[in-house]
Structure formats: structure tokens, C-alpha cells
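LOG
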Amino acid sequence: MREVLSELKAWTKAGEQIALATVVETWGSSPRPLGSKMVVTRSGKMAGSVSNGCIEGAVFEEAQKVLKSGEPKLAAFGVADDLAFSVGLACGGHIEVFIQALGPEHVRLVGLMDENRPATLRTNLVTGEAVLESGTPPGTELARRERRTRAGRLLDDWFIEPFRRPAHLIIVGAIHIAIPLHRLAKLMGYRVTVIDARAKFATKERFPDADELIVAWPDEAMSRLTLDSSTYVVILTHDPKFDLPALRAVLGKDVGYIGAIGSRKTNENRFAALREEGFTEEQLSRVHGPVGLDLGGRGAEETALGILAEITAVRFGGSGSFMREVRALR
């Protein structure tokens, strides 16, 4: 939904009639994941994508029919092998797209997302009923479909989409590695905050893509920020007078990831100090230290990539293994 948020805001304000198309099922080489969105107006505007181009024209036509009739539709589309190849796939696939008129719950969701407030949208794929629940959604970040059947008959069919706050990367320590890390994170769609008590390090010249620069001690800075499951914290300071306050500030919070740069010995020293302060083994086990995946390279860019790769694996439940090994296990 975020990929079409600006268009939805503008078109709603302009009084456009809008249809919302959502990928709710995929088989084979689907070009777009579950939850992918495309929006279409009665006047002919469109934004977003449900297939990277191969069925957008057909979805546009179906959306116009939905806007005319007022009735939602679950449409199935096959992606032929030759068409799949033209959009970069090895073979064809099949997707189902639910098309409905934009309703009050969707407008409410746009408002919540614009304010960076979390919510969950539940859509009945039989009736088109939409139910919006505000607040941080539990469990996975991924959209899912839930069907209920009895004796082979479909009783209920819901599509559940969690919308957390935008993923927020907090980097503690404006050191050299933090520069490529903050750039990579922005490229991946994160909101980025850089914290350092040293004003000469935390500058806009060094971190031009950061959404926020905070010159303060880590614990003081953390007290100003929302720390929840959408928050990913990387501590790069490698100095106990910064590391320990930062760890104290986040270990008791339900953040999505905590990483701390340094050797195994450095991390053990940190953990020993925190144990004496009363932090539990369960809390300490949440710290990824040494931080990042082992990609072999040791430069700042490779280290930053390894850190963001580990965050991505944790965020989406990936193994961090070679894909050829993952596929071999399936």
C-alpha cells in the first residue's frame, strides 16, 4: 500500500472514483508478492503494480467494470511462459487479484499510514467487507490468506494485511561503516536515524540520506524515539561508554533487531557487565554480536551490506543461507 500512498491521497482529495487491486494468491513464478497493489481511477489514471507489467492492462479493464457495477471481483490470471520470459521470469505462473472499490476503511488506512501509525486490514474475498484494526499487528510482517471450509465448501475467505510503521533503522555511532549502512538502508526503504554524542561525526554532510540526526548520548536519544517491532537497532560505537547505555535502552524493549559491532570477546565483556546489572540471558541472547552475516569482505561497504543482510533475514524470517542450499531442503 505504501507504494501507492501518495497517489491515493491525491486522488481521494480530488474526489476520484478509485478501484484497489490486490494480489491475494500466487502459484509458480509470480512476478509480485502477496499484498502487491495497483490502483485505478474511473478517469483512467493508474499506479502501482500487481505483475510488473504483464497483466496490468487486463486488471485495469476489470477495475473499470468493478467501478461501474460497484461489485468486488476475485480475478484469476495466468502468466504464459513466453510472456513470463519477457518480464524476466523463467516460466509462467498464476495469480489471483481481488479488485474492489476504495471504501471508508481504506481511506482510514491511508490516514493511519500517512501518520506512520500501524494497523491491520482484513478483507473478506467473498463479500468485499473490509475491517481495519489500528495498533501494532502481532506476528509476521507478511500478508496472508485464511480460508475456512467445511465438507469441501468454502465458508469464509479472508486476506489479512499487517501494516506496521515503516521499518526504522537506528544507527548508534556515526562512524565510517555507518555511512554506507545508512545509504543502503534508505535504498531498502527504511526510515533512518543516526545517533552520536559527538557533533563533528553526526553531520548532514556525512549522512545526507538520514531522516534524522540526533546529537546526544544513546540512552537520552532512545528515550525520544518509538521503540517497537518495526525498530532495528545497530550499535557501531565500539566504546563501553556509548555501547552500554545504548544496550540498556533497548534490551527491555520489543524491538525487531539489536546488533552490536565488535569481536566475540568484546561482546562477552559487554554481556558480563550487563549481567551484573541484572539483565537476563534471554535478553542478552537477542543481541546479534558480532554483527552481520559473513560475506568475506572486510571493507566498510561489505560490512554494511552484511549487517543489512542479517537485519533483512531476521525481519523476514530468512535463513541467511545460499539459495541453492535452501531450495535443496524444500
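LOG (cont.) second protein
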Amino acid sequence: MYSTCIFCNHALGTNESVEHFPIGRRMAFDARRGRLWVICADCARWNLTPLEDRWEAIEDCERMFRETLVRVSTDNIGLARMPDGLELIRIGSPLRPEFAAWRYGRHFSNRRRKTHVVAGAGIAAAAIAGIAIGPTIVPALSLGAISIVAVPGLTTVMGVIPMIGVLAARDYVQHDRVVARLTHGRRVITVRAKHVGDAELRVNGNTESATLAVQHDAGWSQFTGTEAIMATGKLISGSNRFGAANASVQDAVRQIELAGDANGFLSAAASRNSWRSGRILSLVNRYRGLGAMKLSPTERLALEMSVHEESERRAMEGERAVLETARRDTEEIAQIADDDLTPPKLYE
């Protein structure tokens, strides 16, 4: 049983309400499809729980949700709070926009809020740095040690220093910021913001044949199949680190709906990534505000959602395969047992 977020590695906390799964302070469940998630309080991402820990816990969640009177619900999604503070989100049969608002809206809003806090702290620090050198410069000026005539513009230096800090921070964010560290074979490669614009994703009909070529500090590497999808998820998540408003999330959802489903949008994103490549289109791409993987901000949000949903679909398909194999094995064992217990046939 895991106890930390698989995305940000922060502790998921504990609860006293769900006897079969006492992990997490905020949980979502879909009894119809047999899915149970623990929602990270720090990054707001949904962690799909392991198969062996899920079924009894879903029954616990369903029972508690129905018994509690402190709940808010629509026909498709409901929210309930348990006495120990655990929050339960019950998923029925929501349309994609409604489900996305619950699953991704809070997640991207958290990122956006943290970005604003960090940016404000950075600007304040730069301003403080400018103010801090005042006591050093002013006495020197009064003593004639530094001549304003000899050094024109010195009186504005305290205003220039914060601006230099802001510009340096902007350059770092746009070029040298680490977007992701990916495991490739026995190596861990570092991908920066300046690299992700040239990443090349190819999806030919289905994600099983997906490939991802990505530049990094040590050159280029290529991922295939499941590794390509997982690496794409990490890259695009790092590129979307600054979050988005709810309106942008809904725009991204509409893009997925136009493509049909998550797999369809992955193919569409790969196609756009391909035809937007080339030197001739580089200026056009810059004018259109395209960034990581030559996608717009809305397309990048849609791609991150699609990768999450495709990863979960694969996990569920794998579980179904395991269950089907177990069912066949059980039937074979039962058949053998039946044959052993059946009296021998009597022939005339």
C-alpha cells in the first residue's frame, strides 16, 4: 500500500473512515468502473490505487457516502465530508466537462496560485536587494567617494537592480529551468525549457507504437511505446507547471471532445507537433505563442489530461487482462476438480 503521491512524492495523509484503505484525506471513487483515487493535498493530482486494495475500499466509500447527510451532489458527481475530515468524491456518469472540472480544475488552479506566490516573492526579493544597497551607496556619495558626475545614472541603480532580477528570472524560466528528469535505460537525463520546444511525438493510430524524441543536456534520446507516453506526461506536466484558469481547462476539454477521446487527442497532438516542425514555420510558431512540443497553452493542457487518462486506461486494461487470466485459471482448476470428483462412467 502506497502512502505518498506518485507525482510529487508528498505524503497523502491518513484517514480513520475507510477500513480497507486508511490512506488519504481526499478520495474519489467510481463504483461502476471500479476505480478509486487518492487526491494529493499538495499537487491536487489523482493517484489511482492498486488493484488489490481497491474493491473493498470502494464498497466502504459507497456505503459511507450514502449514510452521510453532509454532502453536496448532482446526478453525476457528489462530495461528502466524513467526521474525521475525509472528503469523498463520488463519480457517477458525468459528461467530460463536468468530470474535468472536478478532477483537473483544482489541480491547475493550485499550480497557478503557487506560481503567483513565488513570482510575488521573487519581485519582493529583488526590490529588497535594491533597497539594501542604499545604506552602502548613500554614505559614499556624501563623502565624495563616488562621483555622480563620473558615474552618470548612479542615482537610478536601485531602481535598475530589481529590473535586472526580473529579467534574469524570466530568462531562467524560458531557457534553463529544469522541466523534467527522465530515466532512459540506466541514465537519468535532464530536460530544460529550451529543449521541449523541439521534442517530437509520433503516434501512428495507437499509443502502442508511440515514439518520443527529446533533446536534453547530453544530446538526444528516443522513447518508444509506454515509455514514450510516460515521458510525454512528465514533459508536458513540467511545461504546464504554472497552471491555468478554469476557463482554459474547459477549452482544453473541448479540444479532447473534438478529437473523440484521450487517445484521439494524443494522435491529433502528435500530428500538429509533426507538421508545425521545420525552420520555415519557426517564426509563425513563435508568433502564435506555441511552446513545448509546438503546442499552444490550451493544447498542452489537453495533452496532459489525455496522457493521464490514457495511462489509467492502460492500467485498467492490464487489470482486466490479469483478472481474465485468473478467471480462466480458476475455471480450469474447477474443471479438473469436477472431473476428479465425477464417478467413472459405466458402459454397457
